[in-house]
From TrEMBL:
Record-annotated ABC transmembrane type-1 domain positions: 12-218
Identification of the protein by name: Molybdenum transport system permease
Organism encoding this protein: Geopseudomonas sagittaria
Role, per record: Part of the binding-protein-dependent transport system for molybdenum; probably responsible for the translocation of the substrate across the membrane.
A GO term, aspect molecular function: molybdate ion transmembrane transporter activity
Residues of the signal peptide: none
NCBIfam families: modB_ABC (TIGR02141)
Amino acid sequence: MVPLDSVDLAAIWLTLKLATLTTVLLLLIGTPIGWWLARTRSKWKGPIGAVVALPLVLPPTVLGFYLLVAMGPHGFIGQLTLSLGLGTLPFTFAGLVVASVFYSLPFVVQPLQNAFEAIGERPLEVAATLRASPADTFFTVVLPLAKPGFVTAAILGFAHTVGEFGVVLMIGGNIPEQTRVVSVQIYDHVEAMEYAQAHWLAGGMLAFSFLVLLALYSSRLKQGWRG
């Protein structure tokens, strides 16, 4: 039996920290995007929806490469952060957060959009007849009805961030206790032929993924029974 060493534990802590922060930001960013996509009839709905869904089909290294260019000293994000005195984001934890938000965005926006669309017009019309403001309607009617969508979005966003490899390696590199997450740590163990340590981390990731999917499908079954 090979216990996890301090480097492995640091990678686990960093991964959980990254996934938690990314999930919070994704819910804050994804909610208005999902609401707009669910409600709008704009001609821009298709193109914007396609942009949001791009990480579903793009190889992670492609997305990571363009984010690396954009966040570099000559990219528009890099020039902005430099002008604000923040330096550049590549190979920093902040850069990992930004890249993770882009990479996991569709896994949060699409469940929210589906939940908003499932509400329909009737509850909104009733709220309007009671003279509820749009803000009141959203917070007192829409959010409670869309709660299952938020649960699904949070679970998928968190789990997808935990499982990242290509994007985080491109943006964060492999800096211990700063950008080295669990997926990269597993890769390092395999490269060094430390299969016992790799088994511990990979097995933990496998168990985590199974429990996430079990919780997700169990919640959907309960919702179906209640319906």
